[in-house]
Amino acid sequence: xxxxxxxxxxxxxxxxxxxxxxxVLMFAPMAWVLVLSFTDNEALSRGTEAAFTGxxxxxxxxxxxxxxxxxxxxxxxxxxxxxxxxxxxxxSSLAGYAFGRLxxxxxxxxxxxxxxxxxxxxxxxxxxxxxxxxxxxLHNTYIGLMLPGxxxxxxxxxxxxxFRAIPPEIDEAALLDxxxxxxxxxxxxxxxxxxxxxxxxxxxxxxxxxxxxWPLISATDKDMYTxxxxxxSSQVNFAQTEGLGxxxxxxxxxxxxxxxxxxxxxxxxxxxxxxxxxx
Length: 279
What we know:
Structural class: mainly alpha
Protein name: L-arabinose transport system permease protein AraQ
Shape: globular
Radius of gyration: 24 Å
Domain ABC transmembrane type-1: 74-265
Main location: membrane
CATH architecture: Orthogonal Bundle
Keywords: Cell membrane, Membrane, Transmembrane, Transmembrane helix, Transport
Subcellular location: Cell membrane
Distance between the termini: 33 Å
């Protein structure tokens, strides 16, 4: 058994302190917003140093409970996030199965075309997308907010790679039992991809929940604002808000669903990243 040398010990200590410094830098803005959310607005109006001295209160959070606009934006974000996530999981799973397990003419060419979508920035297609949705009268609707995010090339690529990693003997055994392709997909293969779907679902929900660009363009009716647009509009009209503490409380309120989703599905994410989903 070899002993740890002083040089190795020094490198480990350096890496440890680097990790601590990076963690502090990442956590500091979140901690600052959290402290502001509990600080009295009247004290904050005189200076943000009140965040260190108080007084502290829960009024900012109780004000959210009495603000129907914030809850309306919250529900809109929840509907858009859940609907977009469900759409991505369904379409990516079906496409991944078709690309990863089936043989059909033009499969490789179409798969390359799908991957080209990874290289096209959203800003490059925003004008034709806006015109199409205007023609179809889909602006200020839930479908209009969800539909662009359902076409996710990364989701198709992830599910394709995951389906390809499943041993082909599973399909052969199911076919010998006279199972149809749909039954093999639904009953046999799809359950094996749950870790990948959990990972894809979390990233899709995070993207939909934090999306600002498309809701800013598509949602012009205040009742159709998502949380990102609603909170941003409050910051623009800062003089009409109830103060900095109230804005910080809204930000904390908006972050809670993301934290809850990650806590619930973190086991599946770790499994997918470690590659232990398919044995």
